Structure formats: structure tokens, C-alpha cells
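Here is one record:
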Amino acid sequence: MTAPGSYSYANPEPDIVTAIRDGDFVDMRPHPYGSNAVFTGLIEADAGQVRVIYKPQRGEAPLWDFPMGTLYLRECAAFELSRALGWDMVPFTIARDGPYGIGAVQFYVEHNPAETYFTLRNEHRVDLQRMALFDALANNADRKGSHCLRDESGRLWGIDHGLMFNEDYKLRTVIWDFEGEPIPDDLLSDLQDLSPRLEDGSDCAVLLSEFLFNQEVDALRDRLEVLLEEKIFPVAGLGRNVPWPPL
């Protein structure tokens, strides 16, 4: 089960979904960078092997501003929010048990690691506009340049979404290219379409509540309302607006 150039990492075929949900982990190796435990490897099923990223809950480093043991759930919430927007910029992600316990398992995007936001920004303006709005909506506290990947077909993806959805303002990102600019009509329409999907009792709101605290879902609604009212990309404040290191 290899991924051709036109493959959808956000909406994989049913046999790959089944493999990621139920297959056996094989050849899992620790990723050498990052403050939390991250593993890359394969999941094996009857139909073949799928390459994945695995982030176990037990490998999460304590943080003062995010509740312990919740980062893997925020990874899953980011995927569901991207899907609800219709933007599909986050690879397929689920929570499941693995070699080191429960964690987030994400479809691995084949990419050139030398390409980052800093090398791609001039070619992917519309993609990065979506990503900037997605990060503002989800309150991304850690959008580094290397969290923007381009797959073999040339499509842009966002990864590493554990530090998101805090109810307090935390937006830290390298993507300030569109600061204060009007949100394009098509993207504004997508945000407007999201609004009823986040209403209490809606399928999307119920699903997000499986991964986030109720007050965090409420804060998500509030951020959406601000974007819809102001109709501009966020403006950086006086505090820390860029993650460190930026790459």
C-alpha cells in the first residue's frame, strides 16, 4: 500500500484506514528530534504496510500551559477540524493503542525534508493563507517552518499539532505573511460554513469534545466568531508571536 503522487493523505482508501486503525506496529524507530517521544515506522495489515508517525501519550513532556497527557488528543482534534473545514491539510490521524500505549497515529507524508515554509512560501500563497487561518482558529502555539510539508504531488500539508486549542490566546507561528489583510471571499465562506457545524450538539462539536475540554470547544467558537466579524488575518501582538526555534 504505497502512496502515489496524487494520493490523499487526509482521506486514504478504506484498506489503509483499516490498517492504521487495526494493524500491527512493526519497525518503529524513535524520531531523533523534539521534546516529546515520536516514532516513525510501519503498520502491517493483510493488504500490506503503511508508514506512520506514532506519538504516545506516555512520551509527552510536562508543560505548564497544557494539561498533562492531552497533546495526542489535540493532534486528533486538528485533523477533525481540518476535515470539517473541507481543507484537508492535516494527514489522517487517529488515537489508538500502540507499542508504548495510547497515542496519536498519523499517516506519514512522503516529502523532501529540505523543503519548509521558508522555501515554499512564494509558491503556495493560497495554501498558506488556509494554514494561517487554520492556526488562528485552532490557536496553534507552535507553527514552525518545518511543520509545513510538500508531498510528492506538490500539495502542502501541516503537521505537529499537539500545542493547539488552548482556551487562552497562544498563537505562535512563522506565517505572518498575510497579517491584517482581508480574508479572501472563498476562505471566508469556508469559515462561515463551519459555524453551524460547531453549534452545541452538532456532530462536529460532539466529536471535538471527545478530544478537547468543553471550555476549549467554546473558545474555538469564539475565535471563529472574531474571524468572521473582523474578516482579516490576525495581527501580531506585542508578546511572543513566533515559536522558538522557528524551524
Remarks:
- Residues 214-230 form the longest helix (17 residues).
- The beta strands are 24-30, 39-45, 48-56, 93-98, 101-107, 148-150, 156-158.
